[in-house]
Amino acid sequence: MRVLGIESSCDETAMALVEQEQEVVRVVASVLASQVNMHAVYGGVVPEVAAREHAEQVFVLLEQLGVPRDGRGIDAIAVTAGPGLIPALRIGVELAKTLSWLWKKPLVPVNHLEGHVASVWVGALKPPRFPVLCLLVSGGHTELILMRDFGQYELIGMTRDDAAGEAFDKVAKLIGLPYPGGPEISRLALEGKREALELPRPMIESADFDFSFSGLKTAVRRLVEEQGDQLNKADLAASFEQSVVDVLTEKTKRALRVYGPASVIVTGGVSANRYLRASLAEMVQHEGGGEIAFYAPDLALTGDNAVMIALAGAWQFARGDLADPLTLEADANKRLAL
Ligand code: KG4
Ligand code: ZN
């Protein structure tokens, strides 16, 4: 089937046409307009600014995507319905409702997090086998999810305060790096020493699979205040990255030992982090001895995009989970089907 995907939950406006036939996924076209530079001025995403920009971009992107005016050839319209910023989500949702009504095509309200999960299936030579243990790390979420099949998600752990990406962004701000901080910190970390500064590894020993990153951020703030100009920012970036990667890897390892998955995947914006990928790959190899496969999305699909929304939409269409184009509403706290 051929699905039109629409994403506007945060600071990227994106649309894609994706074809899916069983295990074969083909990206027909994909377009994206990023607002990152616009929000960098404020040091974070401003929801109303995001919404205004999405509204300006949606028709430009629809045109660029080359979709026929009557929607010919499209079997379903998938749109991110949540979680995300309400003013931003609404733009994509209202567009999708209008197109669905005009073209008489089914409307699929996708969970943004299932989109991030689906991104791993795009371009994978051999798709992950179930059960899949998923570490989802983005700007808004840090979760360990057990996926027993398509559409079956069991949340086994989550952050109790800041998300991993949020921690990268806040620490970057503390040392004067621009938003988004993740790529900046990991670049600077290459020049620093990972053992240079002693930072906590919050909850690394706790018996559950939850995370907490706000204490780590506070520890960094204290160091910045104490050391002032003496602080070596590269060492700080390297030590901070090491701490986050240690916690994420250790918790994923514990979950792997308990749930015995056939595959482990990492996804979301923070999965662009090469150091995290390498650490997880090594851990999975060590634990599974080659029996457990490790996957991460194509680097172009780690951040928000519409390819992942279209594919998650195809999965959801197959489950028959559709929405009414007259009544669908964006849901800031949309939960993953449990
Ligand atoms: O998935 P995403 O694009 O948006 C959300 O759904 O939240 O994730 C964005 C987050 C930001 O916090 C950004 O700093 C982080 O992903 N990020 C990274 C890297 N690239 C992006 N964090 C660590 N290392 C990176 N290389
Ligand atoms: Zn995202």
Description:
The protein is of the alpha/beta class. Helix content is 41%, strand content 20%. The protein has ten helices and ten strands. A five-stranded mixed β-sheet has the order 3-2-1-4-5, sandwiched between helices. A five-stranded mixed β-sheet has the order 8-7-6-9-10, with helices on both faces. Helix 2 runs parallel beside helix 3 and helix 5 packs parallel to helix 7. The longest helix has 27 residues. The chain is globular and about 60 Å long. The model has no long low-confidence stretch (mean pLDDT 96). Bound molecules: 5'-O-[(R)-(carboxyoxy)(hydroxy)phosphoryl]adenosine and zinc ion. The site of 5'-O-[(R)-(carboxyoxy)(hydroxy)phosphoryl]adenosine has 20 residues, from helix 5 and helix 6.
Q: What is the structure about, briefly put?
A:
With 338 residues, the chain is of the alpha/beta class. It is built from ten helices and ten strands.
